């Protein structure tokens, strides 16, 4: 391959040429995913064929050490990965520095971030991915960077560039469609890069990453080391921060439509849920957050006219039969493309599925039939910032994609209404 001298180039270069140079010069992205103790991970993603970037660890019990990264591939990308030592405090690489929090006090939660291009038989939205007003995920990422959070939780659905059939609207995205690395890079890795390089994440699997869709990218990019094959139900992950526990319960493959209570699918869900409850009761932590993709209590606009439909009826059924223990203080989910709060005789559930993809619209007629116990906020792309106050309670700031605070929610104990202040 010939070497191009930059001095010999004209003063004004074609945009396409500049994009080629930028793509060739793009440095590796190194990030941390928190899961169970012993399965949290560090991954570096770079162009295929490049050597692994050196990643060093500062731990609580010893000086710096260099991780032994193992290489795998995903289409035209190289992925170097290693399990994070349990006493890791700081992860350093050429991409940046990531601090592992002992007691996170500022947590950002986002979900359903990808650019929706799937359009079948001329139906369904096609977002303009290059327009930051229509797909504002990059703007949201820049706003979140300023929050200086200790931890970022993504409640699933990273990948939306499955297919696009409109001959005109879809033409700009021909190279980033399907389930390979390029769609993943365009939909999540590239726009989220500044956060991935700086903050630890907890990654929840969404239904867009199930075994019929973008599972390969999720397994290779966002799952613990060694999880290369797709399973219908990933094991529940328990990420502990002293007395504070975040439980990642995978329900990506749980059907939104009611299941027969005697079916194998329902029994599998019930058994996994009961096992999680037994584990929670036996664990020492007294403050627990449950994070999932599909909500336990949530409302989506009805397809058949004004009205709302519950999502996910099967999750609600298993929780009704075996209630969450009192140590579960909050539940977080995505899947519905809006911001909602569900309250009742259960922990407050915050649904945050409006961080980039096309929004669910609740018109005036639909809002009139929303039942008591549910608050569906005005449609807007955004995220949530959870912060502990001086008394140790969590305050939820609901923010737009540019970081402006839309609402403040004082999330308290079970049964106490959420106080919203615009």
Automatic annotation (TrEMBL):
Q: Which Pfam families match?
A: Metallophos
Q: Which residues form the Calcineurin-like phosphoesterase domain?
A: 106-338
The protein's UniProt keywords, in alphabetical order, are: Signal
Record's PROSITE patterns?
PROKAR_LIPOPROTEIN
Q: What Gene3D superfamilies would the database entry show? A: 3.60.21.10
InterPro entries from the xrefs?
Calcineurin-like_PHP, Metallo-depent_PP-like
How is this protein named in the record?
Answer: Metallophosphoesterase
